[in-house]
Amino acid sequence: MRLRPGLTVLWRRPGESQVGTDPRCAVVLEGLTEGEQWLVEALRRSPTAADLLRLGRTRGVPPERVRELTALLERSGVLDPSDAPGHGPVPPEEAYWSRLRADGDGGAVMAARAAARVALRGVDRLGMALAVTLAAAGVGTLLLDDDAPVTTADLGVFHPRDVGRRRGRCATEHLRSAFPALRTSAPAGTRPDVLVAVSYGVPDPVRLRPLLREDVVHLPVVVGDVDVVVGPLVVPGRGPCTRCLDLHRTDADDAWPALATQLRVAPAPGTEVTVAALGSALAAHQVLAAIDGREVGVNAASLEVSALDPVPVVRRWTVHPRCGCDRVGEDARTPVAAGALGPG
Fold it and tell me: What would you give as a GO molecular function for this chain, any one (predicted)?
């Protein structure tokens, strides 16, 4: 018997103990005797049911009351529902999801991530920070694609000795060194569960448009003059795509096609460090939500964040009637929010 990983027992006052601190996973126990508070305190050591009964006898707590307290803690959700004994510390990611999942099975989250494949196009300062976060979060396979050279604007996530070398190769070497279990290649024709495309100014339609026909879920991350725009997550046949956004922008500004054409070939200015950190964290959060089967905030929406305000601006998007992307891959995938992004 053990508490969910990461929860601690706290003494509030005589007769009152608390397990955890967050209202989503904590409970306050009132009206306890001193002996009962000792029983609750003993949960720190992951005792067996027999251990608690023995402690109850030494502290004057009848067996039926011990069982009553145990049942109360089980109903409150602070006990680990699994029967696995505690052997050593649980990794922070697994512990976190063990506290939040109803079944307490953070291991299931980590197993799904380990089986997932994420492709990443564009491994600049933002893209590399994103890759490191996904690898640390337990994603099993990262497929990196970027032939551009490392520049001084990428330093911080790359080393000075990397300047001039290909970003994709350097990033792969660094990730393999830091995460030995990470896979950085896959058989030809492997379809990733999610592809993230980092670009400057506008998404690259030449590289993104084929993904609709190939039924590849993809997330554009676009660095602008001031902000980073994450999303929308494009699920072929189920919501707006990047061309829809272009058509909506053209409706609002008939000069947009000319502007977008120039932006696609404009030099990449690099990304301010806090903007890169915010953008990479948002993108990683959304990719992991899709893999985990949680609600994805960038379904038919984009998140815009800048160094001026860390709180994202949410913009909603609809399929444009002139695009036709909603007729692509109609029988391909179930909606992302339903938790259907397993290995393809």
Answer: ubiquitin-like modifier activating enzyme activity
